[in-house]
Amino acid sequence: MRKKARLLLLLVCLVATAAVWAKRDDGLLEGKLTVDGRERTYRLTLPANLEPGRPVPLVLVFHGGGGNARQMARHTGFPKLARQEGFIAVFPDGWKKNWNDGREDFKVPTFTENVDDLAFIRALLDELTAKYPVDAQRIYATGISNGGIFSHFLAARMADRIRAAAPVVGGMAEPVAASFAPSRPVSLLIIQGTDDPLVPYAGGGIGFRGERGRIVSTQKALELWRAVDGCQDQASSHELPDLDPGDGCRVTCSSWSGIDGTEVVLYTVQGGGHGWPGASQYLPRRTIGTVCRDFEATRVIWEFFKSH
């Protein structure tokens, strides 16, 4: 009997360990699900005023190549903003720390293993909308670098689920541009540095040596989204105040109004490098360029999402 009791206790512990939800020491919930035979993980934070039957927005936040969900949550500050503003922030983990974002990148397993990250995000959204009062008309996506390129890809291929996207220092992969045909208009906010050494503003090869697949130019991505959103030709533009003259950056905001209330917005960070504006200079300037201090990308992105 004693042996059976110990076995039962062990089974209970194993079930508890394998549970889909667990509270982490960083205040985030941790989730797991299996897609295409792979165990996928993610973290999320809930708004302070979450109520059953009261739908709230959901924001997907994608880390860059080599990163993870926990780092992205800490780097952007989205968890605190989500609790304050009343939306669910979700931080998925890429497969082996990368996203299959539409590029042909033979150096990452997501491409070489043909990982279907679109299927992962669809399954993730299905799970979260079943568990929480998610407003299906207010699901958004943002990310940095590899996660930003994936945000373009996601909005283009999952326009039925994504209302707006905000890629940061992440362009549109050439194969995605070549077959660009979203099923409906999607609002886009693009934040891109002109001096990014990894994801070139003018398009071309990704990475220091240009060996990590290719993207189209920022202007080409803008043209594609403006066309599908039926935007007017004339842009509304203004320059942001130079809040930190020491960062060497100046920012111009240009916007185009589209059909059905859509909008395409570009934050051109003149002199900006490969970073999340307003966040830390996570690597030296000589490596990634300068991180702009003239605006906080996290706040700007949420205000854009909130308006759509």
Give a summary of the structure in a few sentences.
With 308 residues, the protein is of the alpha/beta class.
Q: What tags apply to this protein structure?
A:
308 residues, alpha/beta, Rossmann fold, eleven-stranded mixed β-sheet, two-stranded antiparallel sheet, 13 strands, globular
List the helices and strands and how they pair.
Blueprint: H1 2-17, E1 22-23, E2 29-35, E3 38-45, E4 56-62, H2 69-76, H3 78-85, E5 88-92, H4 109-112, H5 117-131, E6 134-144, H6 146-157, E7 164-168, H7 174-178, E8 187-193, E9 204-205, E10 214-215, H8 218-228, E11 236-239, E12 250-257, E13 263-270, H9 285-288, H10 297-306
Parallel strand pairs: 4-5, 4-6, 6-7, 7-8, 8-13
Antiparallel strand pairs: 1-2, 2-3, 3-5, 9-10, 11-12, 12-13
Describe the protein's architecture and organization:
It is a single chain. This protein has 308 residues and is an alpha/beta fold. It has a single domain (24-306), classed as Rossmann fold (3-Layer(aba) Sandwich), CATH 3.40.50. It has ten helices and 13 strands. The strands form two sheets. An eleven-stranded mixed beta sheet has the order 1-2-3-5-4-6-7-8-13-12-11, with helices on both faces.
What's the alpha carbon Rg, rounded to whole Å? 20 Å
Q: Name the CATH homologous superfamily.
A: Alpha/Beta hydrolase fold, catalytic domain
Specify the overall morphology. Answer: globular
Order of helices and strands: HEEEEHHEHHEHEHEEEHEEEHH
CATH class: Alpha Beta
Strand content: 15-25%
* Secondary structure category: alpha/beta
Q: Helix segment count? A: 10
Named at the architecture level, the CATH assignment is 3-Layer(aba) Sandwich
CATH-assigned fold name: Rossmann fold
Number of strands: 13
Determine the fraction of residues in helical runs and give it as a percent range.
25-40%
If you average the pLDDT, what whole number results? Answer: 91
How far is it from the N-terminal to the C-terminal residue, by CA?
61 Å
Q: Reading side by side through the largest sheet, how are the strands ordered?
A: 1-2-3-5-4-6-7-8-13-12-11
